[in-house]
Amino acid sequence: MSDELAGLDDLVIQGQTIRGIKLIKDTFECTLHEALEFYVDRYRKLRQTRPNDFTESHEEYWEGFYS
Predict the structure, then answer these.
(1) Contact indicator for 47, 7 with CB cutoff of 8 Å
(2) d(C-alpha 32, C-alpha 34), whole Å
(3) Which residues have a Cβ under 8 Å from the Cβ of 21 and sit 6 or more positions away?
(4) N or C: which end of the chain has fewer CB within 10 A?
(5) Which domain of life is it from (predicted)?
(6) 60 within a domain of the structure (yes/no)
(7) What is the pTM of this model?
């Protein structure tokens, strides 16, 4: 992962979805859809590799987020 995205994992774990997607979009100059896909992929990877870092269940994490 690039230096520009060094803080992305923290944003994902903290549930800062909008800030994380914006960071991805700005860094890679990609579409909103592409940034969302990247974010969700990173979320899934972190759920597998660092499950104890999350303070919410999967359902709680995505509650109120509609794309």
Answers:
(1) no
(2) 5
(3) 32, 35, 36, 39
(4) N
(5) Bacteria
(6) no
(7) 0.91
